[in-house]
Amino acid sequence: MEKFLSVTGLAAPMPAANVDTDVIMPKVFLKGIDRSGLARGLFHDLRFDAQGGTRTDFILNRAPMQNVRFLLTGPNFGCGSSREHAVWGLLQYGIRALIGSTFAGIFADNAANNGLLLVTLGDDERARLARAVGPDGTEITVDLATQTVTCGGLCLDFGIEPSRRQALMEGRDKIATTLQMKERIRDFEAAYFAEAPWLARGGEA
Amino acid sequence: MRSRTLYDKIIDRHKIQALDDRAGPGSQLLLYVDRTVLNEYTSPQAFTGLRDAGRGVWRAEAALGVVDHVNSTAPDRGASVGDADAQRQIAYFAENGRDFGIEMFDVLDPRQGIEHVVLPELGWVLPGLVIAAGDSHTATYGAFGTVGFGIGTSDIEHLLATQTVTYTRLKTMRVRVVGDLPLGVTAKDLVMALIRKIGADGAAGHALEFVGEAIGALDVEGRMTICNMSVECGARVALMAPDDKVFDYIAGRSRAPSTEMLERAKPVWRALASDPDAVFDREVDLCAGEIAPMVTWGTSPDQSGAIDDAVPDPACLPADRRGDAARALDYMGLEPGTRYEDIAIDRAFIGSCTNARLDDLRAAARILRGRSVAPGVRAMVSPGSSSVRRAAEAEGLDRAFIEAGFEWRQSGCSMCLAMNDDVLAPGERCASSTNRNFEGRQGSGGRTHLMSPAMVAAAAVTGRLADVRALATREM
After folding, report:
1. Per residue in B413-438, pLDDT tens?
2. Domains B6-284 and B294-471 share a fold
3. Which residues of B touch A109 (CB under 8 A)?
4. Fold of B294-471
5. What's the rounded mean pLDDT across residues A159-179?
6. Interface pTM, i.e. ipTM
7. Selected residues 415-434 of chain B with any CB under 8 Å from a CB in chain A
8. Looking at the complex, does the CB of residue B440 fall below 8 Å from at least one CB of chain A?
9. Do B382 and B411 meet the contact criterion of CB atoms below 8 Å apart?
């Protein structure tokens, strides 16, 4: 996955609560067997009407938001289905970080596994950033090394779980890291199944 | 040893090692996963990842695959194969099963069904396990005292390669349900009332544990409904301490442990409960006696009310909910103040991993006997699994549905998320026994009202949202 160090680009406000993964990536884009082609599906029903026409009132359809890099999101963003396609679509569209209050659990794990940075700010800080970004969006910088969001003269600090930060900055392969512990996993399994023989294959009727 | 919650006991038992120097909620650990179930739409990229990296599957017998999301539910199973994309996903799924040695139930397998219906009915979900799977409703297994949680495709790949996930320990929330559910009020209404009370993110970051008389009084299927739909208030995990009803449910099923092994397991399983003085991060109380049959009016599962009430006025809601409520009513085509019972429907759907088990079908059939689906309403039922379908046919439930005017379909996720051809047309309004009323969930522009299966049956025969209690005095 792509490393996240410092990114500068346009930020767009999307403050609605409970934006679910069905809205982020509608079902018609879930029928592939690879990860490709999902930028087209991102927020599809918000971007396009039933006839395929562009909805000019949607923030991402307004110039110059075709080059958006960040979204300022509302509470519980990414709720609903576990579909990782939502995160793949955001990244393929060019979005590198979401800045909001809370993110749904599975969505947050998916984001971490793909290098999409989620920044959580307090209510007061989010309000200040929203004012600085304005209703039409503007350029900001998100720096993971210094853990800051900068917009004009405004500079906000953010916290992030240290292992998540390190993984994002290194872009590392999580499976390879876990497989370094394979002896521990094998030892665990041996003891575990000895204590719970009804879980072993022979335990079945 | 300090007092612990049921959740922490199960996590501690599966902890291979800490991944940071913290303790308690938020700490990272390497977690052993007992079992997983795979489906055809969230797993393909995980298998491709394994292939690309030249990795194998750690423990193939710990995984089972079921085709459920994209398959057709047309009555003639052999004749309907779905569109080209669905066929490709199903074909790649089968290929992955063959190449990695994982057992897969294809569409024609008599054990096929919705993954969260299939696993319990096989007797494969046992108390005290950790089951992670690529579907948010994996929380269903909490009804057995199992920590079940949904994961994305990258974590499916990690799980297949290592039999583990890197896990962040959750906070805990106890939901105490006091009193008994009134006549005509179901497990679905209970969990919908909870979601309304605490909000769509009310349990975010928490593992729920349900306790109380009303929970103990429910059968295992009703408990699954509650744990399943707890996901819609943000819970990643929902748990109930297992009891004799759970042990009896498991015994004798095709993949359950042998009788001898069950007797060895039971003392261990009986200890799967929170210690009496265990401390939860949050406590919520719910009075079962005050719950009425519920329906949703909006596009988030917490936008709901009792059937004898009316669509709320956004201006009367808390300030931070008004904008979303107004937008939801616009999408739903509803005016504030409209009585729920005056809302006419076009479609009725009974199905999904939340509410399509045998007892759900029985409850709906009780309402349908001697009645007919209202003119202009298209009604469908998709049993939770092929086994549920056969069991329902054995006791004549199919006749009750068909004679009332329902389509008696095959099993699959069907119109819960409409990945196959069971889809609402734009503007169509559906009474649905499913779990999500999101915009476009059942079809672009479709309007979903969530409710219990008996309430869907009542709506189908009335042609409007209806109070099942007014129809069911005779039957209950």
Report:
1. 999 999 999 999 999 999 999 999 99
2. yes
3. 151-152, 155
4. Aconitase; domain 3 (3.30.499)
5. 90
6. 0.95
7. 417-419, 426
8. yes
9. yes
Model-wide pTM > 0.95: yes
Tell me the Ramachandran region of residue B420: left when phi exceeds 0, alpha when psi lies from -120 to 50, beta otherwise. beta
Whether residue A99 contacts residue A137, with contact meaning beta carbons closer than 8 Å, is answered with no
Among A180, A198, A204, which would you mutate to test the B interface (most chain B Cβ atoms within 10 Å of its Cβ)? A198
Where residue B74 falls among pLDDT bands split at 50, 70, 90? very high
Q: How confident is the model at residue A205 (pLDDT cuts 50, 70, 90)?
A: very low
Cβ-in-10-Å burial (0-12, 13-18, 19+) of B143 comes to buried
Average pLDDT, chain A: 94
Q: For residues B350 and A106, what is the distance between their CA atoms, to the nearest angstrom?
A: 27
pLDDT of residue A10: 98
Whether domain B6-284 has CATH 3.40.50.1860: the reply is no
Q: Which chain B residues are Cβ-neighbours of A193 within 8 angstroms?
A: none
Q: Which CATH architecture has domain A6-171?
A: Alpha-Beta Barrel (3.20)
The whole-angstrom distance between B17's CA and the closest CA on chain A is: 8
- Res A204: pLDDT: 40
Residue B473 predicted with pLDDT over 70: no
Shortest distance between the Cα of B200 and any Cα of chain A, in A, equals 7
Orientation of helix B453-462 relative to helix B397-404, angle to 10° = 30
pLDDT tens profile B102-149: 999 999 999 999 999 999 999 999 999 999 999 999 999 999 999 999
Residue A102 · residue A120 · CB < 8 Å: yes
Interface check B389 vs A, CB under 8 A: no
- Percent of chain B at pLDDT > 70 equals 99
Looking at residue A202, its pLDDT comes to 42
pLDDT tens for A41-65 read 999 999 999 899 999 999 999 988 9
Chain Cα centroid distance, residue B355 = 7
Q: Do B324 and A106 touch (CB under 8 A)?
A: no
Res. B80 pLDDT band, cuts 50 70 90: confident
Domain ranges of chain B: 6-284, 294-471
Question: Could you read off the pLDDT of A26-45 as tens digits, one per residue?
Answer: 999 999 999 999 999 999 99
- Name the residue ranges covered by the structural domains of chain A: 6-171, 173-205
Among A35, A185, A25, A169, residue whose Cα is nearest residue B154? A35
Pairing of strands A138-143, A148-151: antiparallel
> B30 contacts in A (CB within 8 Å)?
178, 181, 184-185
Contact A113 B19 (CB under 8 A): no
Note the pLDDT of residue A1. Answer: 81
CB neighbours of B121 closer than 8 A, spacing ≥ 6?
B113, B253, B385, B387, B388
Residue B130 touches partner A, C-beta closer than 8 Å = no
| Structure token digits, residue A26 | 């509608």
How close is the nearest chain B Cα to the Cα of A168, in Å? Answer: 15
Scanning every residue of chain B, which has its alpha carbon at the shortest distance from the alpha carbon of A103?
Answer: B204
Which residues in chain B are contacts of A84 at CB distance < 8 A?
42, 45, 152-154
Q: How many CB atoms lie within 10 A of CB A134?
A: 11
